[in-house]
Amino acid sequence: METLKRTLRLRAFAKINAGLKIIGKRPDGYHEIRTIYQTITLHDKLEINLAPGGKETAVACDNPAVPAGQGNLVYRACELWRQARAFRCGIQVRLEKMIPLGGGLGGASTDAAATLLGLERLTGDRLDFSARHRLAAALGSDVPLFLLGGRVLGCGRGEEVYPLNDLPSRACLVVFPGFAVSTAEAYHEAGLRLTDRPPTAYSKCFGAWPQIPPMSWGPAENDFEQVVFARWPELARLKRRFIRAGAEVASLTGSGSAVYAVFSSPRQLVRASQLIPKGWHLFRTRTLARSGYHRKLYEH
User: Fold this and answer.
1) In angstroms, how far is the first alpha carbon of the chain from the final one?
2) 65-71, long-range: CB within 8 Å, 24+ apart, which pairs?
3) Which of 22, 114, 121, 167 could form a disulfide with 223 if both were Cys (CB 3.0 to 4.6 A apart)?
């Protein structure tokens, strides 16, 4: 093992979903999906400290709405790492949140993935891809994508990931309306409305969604929109405004509640920013390719 470092600061980047299809209910209770993940420059910040004389894990966050202890995915990532690697030092993590909670942007998942990568870098105890992926998948369906970054095909419950060719960087507008959507409830409603295939109808990941555009953004069809837009039509109206404003693609991300739009020029993004309802949270960001993702993880 390499020399143990004490402190590391790193970034944890958000994602959007450039298309999401619900295939059906699986025997294990999860839903089989196909999606294209895309990382963006909107990010949280983490500081990981190792305490050689300690044995406990402690996570502090500047957002009081973020749970502590077992309810925090960063805490669980630390404990999973500790168990898997027989790690005996104390771990302290400070988390600065910028990614809104409950928006479908992967905030908790990316924090957990960054924690795993950060612990590897701090300790020099680097895992092979399969072992790292197993730890990430045990934490949550979205966590493995953040081990790759860039444009990623997600299958299974989302944890089966394949890197895709990155597209040119684009200006991206993300809007969070200020309320969260329950992922579990959204899946339940979407499953009732949208899935009619038995588990035996599942095909291999690429074969089940042959319309994946190899080098283009759209159409980003998200099956959750039928459920979420029916309850919150103001989100559907915002998507239509973005499309009329010239967005290459506009969509709900994940199960919501955030809506994003990708533009070919920053000027279009600025004009579209004027369409946001008052009181909603606006983030001007960019898509983040795989090479830039891994380089920027450790910039601060």
Assistant:
1) 26
2) 65/101, 66/95, 66/97, 66/101
3) 22
Pick from 150, 182, 183: which is nearest to 167 by CA? 150
In CATH terms, are 7-165+290-296 and 171-286 the same topology?
A: no
Q: Quick one: which of 12, 63, 14, 31 has its CA closest to 173? A: 14
Question: Which one of 15, 21, 97, 239 is the catalytic residue?
Answer: 15
* CB contact set of 55 (below 8 Å; sequence gap of 6+): 88, 89, 90
Q: 196 an active-site residue?
A: no
pTM of structure: 0.93
Choose, from 44, 111, 142, 223, the residue flagged as catalytic: 142
119-169: pLDDT as tens digits: 999 999 999 999 999 999 999 999 999 999 999 999 999 999 999 999 999
15 as an active site residue: the answer is: yes
* Domain topology for 7-165+290-296: Ribosomal Protein S5; domain 2 (3.30.230)
